[in-house]
Design goal:
This protein is an alpha/beta fold. The protein contains 30 helices and 18 strands. Bound molecules: (2S,3S)-3-hydroxy-2-methylbutanoyl-COA.
């Protein structure tokens, strides 16, 4: 017998074995339609007297990526996953699952409800729900402990980490490891169960021993985190219910799951999940990417070395060109050190590490760029140096080679104009450290060809990065918004908040570091050089804070000199720098500024509203395609807290009308800085949200992630 159930599941029999194959590309995500098809197929095989055992397995790259995240927030419609899993577990006929690729979330919960679990090949399993602001909502928190014990389940569920097949076998989650095709592995296991060679292990009838020490340690660890997210703590509560009878535990788990499902943390984390993937939906996506095998990186400094490392890890052949021959060896050493670090962190296998090293050539002559399909310039941020270099590259590089600049703010149109191939010139703005940070701003100049843009996006995806399309302006998307965020913080400092209060408020909001601690890390002298460069074009009416300049005048450049806003010893921050506090107080006196106090809420509101206002201007000028692209820039390039979803997701929580009220209130302090963007007024008038704008602009609706 063979039957295709609604095009999503194939059921068939092989002798006395019934087979259920999940077949819903691209990842067998388990939504209502697939759930229903699995359930119908299961009932059919249950009724078939010739079937003595049932095997579930997946078609395609994975067994399944779990519940369909696009369904979140929708009403529960039968058959729900818990309902189906109860039927699997209660089945008289043994139910076996053969897992391959990944089995995450609801996919693993399906496996936990079966009677025997086979791991095939390089399978990875996990319950990553906490990364989406949830907990395993279909029995995972009850059934995993029944196989792995409470401590093992707490570790996997509260961290959301994924686990190799070997570790899963050692933890008692899997019953057997196999190679080859999941279908055959499942049939062999089913036959062994029927022959009594392999003992089925149903989970619901197993007990879970208390482990108060593990629970106490986990609670302390989760509460100590900054920020202490809600989902992991609630997931811990759900796992602890596993010591109850199974039906009580399942009921407790479901109630806690629904609580989280309704929460802001889930909406934000799901939004972030889709934001990471939405940005590839660009106008040029139909263009065919050019073939890129060999890449030349010009510049052996920190950025060039990081970019070269990222490309080597991505499988490309790299010519790293450093004009100053005495620095070529140092550049190579930098790449070797980065690759060794990636190997040590487990990001690279030995084999991949060695292959990456073998694919690196270093040179001090531009001639090596002649064989490149793509050149990425990463020299110092000076327009005349860049245009001179691009003119040379234009003559050296082969026709059709793409010439990219890594500039973080300079005009890519001007750089393109220095060549006779403006259609091949593009911006690839990597973020330091380039082999770790995932964001790439792909800056499209006026004459950049569509296939050049498509090539940049294909490269970024192959590097495992998040590409975001930007048009040309000073600072593109991220640095434009960062400038306003920093100005808001600087004005708060002048007006009475201390830099420790400002950093503390933003770190409580979820930023890993507040703006002043970040400045110390980046180097106050670097930022001063940028301010000096811009001084000539700074509008006269723009409020300017001299505090950072005055701190620099003391030779205090931050972490690298042991003093900046903070004092550092042995690389560790020792608290606010008394000298910096004094500089701020003196500057307030010199400006005759009354010292006002600000609550943490107002500090966060002013800094976040400044980011949002500039982001709206970036949108209305067409620099960014959609609000979700701006969220992706902030989440993957600027450390915006993931559980807050991004500035535009936050803007939807605040609402256009309230944002306008705040901007108009703050404008009493500084009307030049606080201005309401036209688009925001239009949205308030038309009752539109930024989530609506995401869908309207390109049809890529991320509504499921924010409702
Ligand atoms: N639901 C819906 N779509 C999904 C999805 C999912 N679970 N997983 C992936 N996709 C889409 C993704 O948006 C993209 O779409 C395409 O599939 C390829 O994904 C009840 C409630 C599996 C490791 O958290 O980790 O079960 O952009 O680009 O890099 O307790 O996808 O092409 O239109 O990421 O090879 C738990 C999330 C859900 C796993 C594959 N599961 N997914 O990575 O491909 S909650 C997860 C991943 C749950 C239960 C609870 C990865 C992957 P598009 P991709 P990839």
């Amino acid at each position: 017998m063979k039957d295709n159930v609604s095009g999503l599941v194939v059921i068939e029999t092989e002798g006395e074995i019934g087979l259920i194959r999940l077949a819903k590309p691209p990842v067998n995500a388990i939504g209502l339609a697939l759930r229903t098809a699995i359930y119908e197929g299961f009932k059919t095989l249950q009724k078939d007297p010739a079937v003595r055992a049932i095997v579930l397995y997946g078609e395609g790259r994975f067994f399944s990526a779990g519940a369909d995240i696009k369904d979140f927030g929708k009403a529960d419609i039968q058959p729900t996953l818990p309902h189906i899993l109860k039927a699997l577990n209660d089945s008289e006929k043994p139910v076996i699952v053969a897992l391959h690729g990944v089995a995450f979330g609801g996919a693993l919960e399906v496996a936990l409800a079966t009677h025997l679990r086979v791991g095939v090949g390089d399978l990875r399993i996990g319950l990553p729900e906490v990364k989406l602001g949830l907990l395993p909502g279909a029995g995972g928190a009850q059934r995993l402990p029944r196989l792995s014990g409470l401590a093992g389940a707490i570790d996997i569920i509260c961290s959301g980490r994924d686990v190799s097949a070997r570790e899963a076998l050692d933890l008692g989650i899997l019953d057997r490891l196999a190679e080859g095709a999941p279908r055959e592995a499942g049939i062999i296991a089913a036959r062994d169960v029927l022959a009594g060679k392999l003992a089925a292990r149903r989970t619901d009838t197993r007990d879970v021993a208390e482990d108060l020490a593990a629970v106490k340690a986990a609670k302390a660890r989760l509460k100590a985190k900054r920020p202490a997210l809600q989902a992991p703590l609630t997931a811990l509560e759900a796992v602890c219910a596993a010591t109850l009878p199974i039906d009580e535990g399942l009921a407790k788990e479901r109630a806690l799951f629904m609580e989280l499902m309704a929460g802001e943390e889930r909406a934000a984390l799901v939004h972030a999940f889709f934001a990471e993937r939405a940005t590839v939906d660009i106008p040029e996506k139909a263009a065919h990417p050019r073939q890129i095998d060999r890449i030349a990186v010009i510049g052996g400094g920190t950025m060039g070395v990081g970019i070269a490392t990222s490309l080597l890890i991505g499988g490309y052949h790299v010519d790293l060109i450093e004009a100053q021959s005495e620095r070529v060896a140092q550049a190579r050493a930098g790449v070797e050190s980065n690759l060794a670090g990636a190997l040590k962190r487990g990001k690279l296998t030995e084999q991949a590490h060695d292959a990456a090293l073998a694919a690196l050539d270093c040179a001090d002559s531009l001639d090596a760029a002649g064989r490149a399909d793509l050149v990425i310039e990463a020299i110092f941020e000076d327009m005349s140096a860049k245009t001179a270099l691009f003119t040379k590259l234009d003559t050296i590089c082969k026709p059709g080679a793409i010439l990219a600049t890594n500039t973080s703010y300079l005009d890519v149109n001007e750089i393109a104009a220095a060549t006779k191939r403006p259609q091949d010139v593009i911006g690839l703005h990597f973020f330091s450290p380039a082999h770790i940070m995932r964001l790439i701003e792909v800056v499209v100049a006026k004459e950049t060809a569509p296939d050049c843009v498509a090539s940049a996006f294909a490269l970024a995806r192959k590097l495992g990065k998040v590409p975001v399309r930007a048009e040309v302006c000073d600072g593109f998307i991220g640095n434009r918004i960062l400038t306003q965020y920093r100005r808001a913080a600087d004005y708060l400092l002048l007006d009475g908040a201390s830099f420790t209060e400002i950093d503390g408020a933003l770190e409580d909001f979820g930023f890993a570091m507040g703006p002043f601690a970040v400045s110390d890390l980046a180097g106050l002298d670097i930022a001063k050089a940028t301010r000096d460069r811009k001084a000539a074009t700074r509008p006269a009416e723009e409020r300017y804070s001299r505090v950072a300049d005055l701190i620099c005048d003391q030779g205090w450049f931050g972490r690298k000199t042991g003093q900046g806003y903070y004092v550092y010893e042995g690389g560790k921050q020792q608290g606010g720098n008394p000298g910096a506090f004094e500089i701020v107080a003196a500057e307030r006196r010199a400006l005759n500024l009354p010292k006002r106090s600000f609550t943490s809420e107002e500090i966060v509101s002013r800094c976040l509203t400044a980011m949002i206002a500039e982001a709206v201007r970036v949108l209305e000028e067409g620099i960014a395609l959609r609000p979700v692209d701006i969220d992706a820039v902030e989440l993957f390039g600027y450390g915006f807290p993931r559980h807050r979803g991004g500035p535009m997701h936050q803007a939807d929580l605040i609402g256009p009308a309230e944002l306008i009220r705040r901007i108009e209130l703050y404008a009493n302090d500084d009307p030049q800085f606080w201005q309401v963007p036209h688009l925001l007024r239009d949205m308030a008038r038309e009752g539109r949200s930024f989530a609506d704008l995401n869908g309207a602009l390109t049809g890529h609706v991320t509504k499921g992630s924010t409702k």
